[in-house]
Amino acid sequence: MDNCQLKLTAGLAGLDLALPEFQQKSLLQFIQLITKWNKAYNLTAVRDPEEMVTLHLLDSLVIVPHIKSPRVADIGTGAGLPGIPLAICMPDCHFTLVDSNSKKTRFVQQAVLELQLKNVDVVHSRVELLKPQSLYSTVISRAFASMNDILKLTEHLLADDGLLLAMKGQTPTQELAALATDYTVIPLSVPGIAAERCLISMEKAQHG
């Protein structure tokens, strides 16, 4: 996995993320797990481990500076993206990874066990049925639904002053035009990915 290690090291430098060796090892171990389970579970269309470093790890970690701690929910986590790479790199944050696909949550649960991540819960549920004991400071969604739907489906999960972060490719101009909420578009640059990436950030207003 030497090429993967080189790609990860270069990518982390590009993102300006200094991670200790044990965290980098966990990130690469996560990719090995996806590769192993992909054969049976079809977790992701990306088959090449080197591509996974770019498209799964770096593409997840690019949002680290924008996350508000301490409680984060990753909605529609799929194979654990971006939640697991983020949880590896942000051990002081608590992550809840939610997906309605039981195959995928089984894999994510296994990954959490094998990577010994103490700061992750995996929940098999539809997002609208989720009733957390305490609300989240950040809710993340990656290619999950349209902006309006994301907002409607996740509003009950956010604490006052919480952030909703939607990871998108090109700026979804039409979806944003339909929003009645203030938002910020943050352009993202992922090392090794030429395609456009952006983060739509929306803050939940305080009530009271």
3D architecture notes:
Helices cover 39% and strands 22% of the residues. The chain contains 7 helices and 7 strands. It has helices at 2-15, 21-41, 49-61, 83-89, 102-114, 147-154, 173-177; strands spanning 71-75, 94-99, 120-124, 136-142, 158-168, 184-188, 197-203. It has a 7-stranded mixed sheet, with helices on both faces. Strand 1 (71-75), helix 4 (83-89) and strand 2 (94-99) form a beta-alpha-beta unit. Helix 1 packs parallel to helix 3 (49-61) and helix 2 packs antiparallel against helix 4 (83-89). The longest helix is centred in the first third of the chain and has 21 residues, at 21-41.
DSSP helical segment count:
7
Label the structural class: alpha/beta
Compute the average pLDDT.
95
Largest sheet: 7 strands, mixed
Helix and strand element order: HHHEHEHEEHEHEE
| Helix proportion range | 25-40%
Uncertain segments are: none
Using only C-alpha atoms, the radius of gyration works out to 16 Å
> How many β-strand runs?
7
- Going across the biggest sheet, name each strand in turn: 3-2-1-4-5-7-6
Describe the oligomeric state of these chains in a short phrase.
Answer: single chain
Global shape? globular
Strand content: 15-25%
First-to-last CA distance? 53 Å
Give me the secondary-structure topology:
Layout: H1 2-15, H2 21-41, H3 49-61, E1 71-75, H4 83-89, E2 94-99, H5 102-114, E3 120-124, E4 136-142, H6 147-154, E5 158-168, H7 173-177, E6 184-188, E7 197-203
Parallel strand pairs: 1-2, 1-4, 2-3, 4-5
Antiparallel strand pairs: 5-7, 6-7
